[in-house]
Amino acid sequence: xxxxxxxxxPTINSLFSRREVPENLWTKCEECGTMLFHRELxxxxxxxxxxxxxxxxxxxxxxxxxxxxxxxxxxxVPEPIADPLQFRDQKKYVDRIRDARxxxxxKEAMLVAxxxxxxxxxxxxxxxxxxxxxxxxxxxxNAIIVAAERAIKLKRPLVLFSAAGGARxxxxxxxxxxxxxxxxxxxxxxxxxxxxxxxxxxxxTGGVTASYAMLGDVQIAEPGAxxxxxxxxxxxxxxxxxxxxxxxxxxYLLDHGMLDRVTPRTKLKDELVAxxxxxxxxxxxxxxxxxxxEASDPAASGPAASGPADSGPAASGPAASGPAASATSAxxxxxx
Amino acid sequence: MTNYLEFEKPLAEIEGKAEELRALARANPxxxxxxxxxxxxxxxxxxxxxxxxxxxxxxxxxxxxxxxRPHCKDYIEALFTEYTPLAGDRNFADDHAVMxxxxxxxxxxxxxxxxxxxxxxxxxxxxxxxMARPEGYRxxxxxxxxxxxxxxxxxxxxxxxxxxxxxxxxxxxxxxAIARSTQKCLQLKVPLISxxxxxxxxxxxxxxxxxxxxxxxxxxxxxxISPEGCASILWKDADxxxxxxxxxxxxxxxxREIGVCxxxxxxxxxxxxxxxxxxxxxVGATLKALLAELDGKSGEALRSDRRKKYLGLGSKGLAx
Lengths: 336, 320
Hints:
The structure holds 2 protein chains of 2 kinds. By secondary structure, chain A is of the alpha/beta class. Helix content of chain A is 35%, strand content 15%. In chain A, helix 5 packs parallel to helix 7. The C terminus of chain A is likely disordered. Chain B is built from 14 helices and 8 strands. Chain B starts with 8 loop residues before the first helix and ends in an 8-residue tail after the last helix. The model of chain B has no long low-confidence stretch (mean pLDDT 94). The chains are: A alpha/beta, B alpha/beta. At the A-B interface, helix 5, helix 6, helix 7, helix 8 and helix 9 of A face helix 7, helix 8, helix 9, helix 10 and helix 11 of B.
């Protein structure tokens, strides 16, 4: 029987899995059902070319599109202590983190980078919903603080893309304490006179919405994004009535005065550049696709690394390549 | 009439028996039951000490939510003089889940703000069970601003299951209101002292409790999510709240170890609900002591100390 399980079965399996590959080149839009070719979808920043539905995009892919020539420098985030509460539900927290790292190839739920966007130097932070629902724990808190510190040091605006199910329960009260911690970061930016722009993406909920994600100088959301404190299901259970169409979606919030703008992802870069350049007294932006800035950028010399040495489990993805890692491709790195 | 908690049932039986005996003796004056009744009293007292000496996390949740526990209103009435409630957010409404105003503590003018849960069905509904809407947080922001402008210390009494999850609350910006309230706490140049007197429910609590000093009553809890909510999400079973309560480390003792809570205020044996007056007095003494600690600090120092405190949180976890 051994040769059957050792040879025949894998061969059959590989034949079948090979046949599945072509299907992976296509993504079905969950909104309109259109089959979208993966390259076309990536080129359109994961926005359906037929109906405009916004699909999740990784921070790396977002930054590759945001920064001129796709070039950015990752800012190293101080590593927090791992599993401070020794949390365990049906699974150990340390195991959940390990699995999330393996699946995403990322170290944690937020990526911080610096670079130029439309020839406008910025620091950007983006939350990764695919990493434990983007949940805000100590790492995300540290990421926002280091992003603010870096922005202040370089005298640049901070642009933050939020996406999270809320606070990370497995860090208990310490996840809740990221609400005041990240608010301190916002205060620091404010006192330094630097713009802080929040782009709320689908979904942004709970303690994240109730702290740094609602404190921007300008609040922009992507179309259709769910943005709320309490989720629709919780509310329906509490008030026992059906919620109106589009409730807690970006457009609904705009109507209720909670946002400045709802802007499609494909137009975000131009809009951010325009706003930031007006707020910082810069001249009108140069339009169009710009190549990577010249290498003489002194800012790229060394990102802040004020935390303890990287002692946590090594990330298996591109994040492990060090603080100066830059990405030039719009393609997200494949998960190992 | 005592409201016994589920885990207090054995106690209820003993106290019930003692009461029965005494009732019997009242009906038949020739009977002498005092010795037996006193023995039962002793037994009950011992049991109470042992029950409350070692409360697990879930039992603490039950104690923290006990309906007979003193509430914000009781503290304000007993500890403060000249309490002058100030109402409204100047935008939409006055939220009765949050009460606050000017008052004197030991003769000193302060601004006091707190969540009020109510004590019977009617008042609980009126106060929305202590669950604030955006108007509540915006009222608090207004009161903190007032305190800041006139140099008055701010005292917050936290007792909420969480911010209200309702349609109107969301439409009027529940998350923005909470975020701004936390931000206001961090901006104040006056002392801000917070006491978690019962339940510190998530963002609804943080909005008031981002303070220079956070004190917690011995059996109070403070958590990112209710044990029931956590159980239904992580265990996919709301009945696993005991396990969730344990895992969340939401007791004052755990939080003291992590540094989120600065001071634990001892409760009377058997919990705050067995002796409200003693509990309130203990809270009063702690408030005065904490205010004295912060006296003489400049506004700038008060603000920057508060920020440093929160930036530094998370540097120590629980001992393994």
